[in-house]
Amino acid sequence: QVHLVESGGGSVQAGGSLRLSCAASGSMFSFNFMGWYRQAPGNQRELVAVITLRGITTYADSVKGRFTISTGNAKNTVYLQMDSLKPEDTAVYYCKAVRGAAATAYWGRGTQVTVSS
Questions:
Q1: Pairwise CA distance, residues 39 & 92, whole Å
Q2: pLDDT in tens, 81-102
Q3: Cα-Cα end-to-end distance for the chain
Q4: HSE of 6, CA atoms in CB hemisphere, 13 A
Q5: Measured CA angle at 108 (ends 110, 3), to 5 deg
Q6: What is the 3-state secondary structure (H, E, C) of 74-85?
């Protein structure tokens, strides 16, 4: 059983920064990839950034140049450094991890990020 626990959300003014963390527990095996998704009210959940076991990163166009995804040394922790935040970044941010040949996906419960203008 894998549990993902997010932390680091909160409220910030436009132009500010936040750093999200996601720690995976219950497994000592590395994940195929880990990443962050977000969902604003009335919108579908969308990809923000993902990073593979080999360190290859993918970002949504809307966050390129502002957000940075990284992993911890143990490869079961993922971070999202969010700079130059905009009100449109307001959403619940979810951590996702995918593991194994079957690509089993695990989700965290989400952390709220609110950016005021």
A1: 5
A2: 999 999 999 999 999 999 888 9
A3: 40
A4: 26
A5: 150
A6: CCCEEEEEECCC
Note the pLDDT of residue 35: 96
Q: For residue range 21-59, list pLDDT tens digits in order.
A: 999 986 656 789 999 999 999 999 999 999 998 899 999
- 113 pairs with which residues across the strands? 10, 91
Degrees, nearest 5: CA angle 55-79-2: 85
d(CA 94, CA 6): 8
β-partners of residue 71 are: 78
CA dihedral 104, 74, 3, 19 (to 10 degrees): -110
Instruction: Using alpha carbons, select from 8, 27, 16 the residue that is nearest to residue 94.
Output: 8
Phi, psi of 89 (to 5 degrees): -85, -5
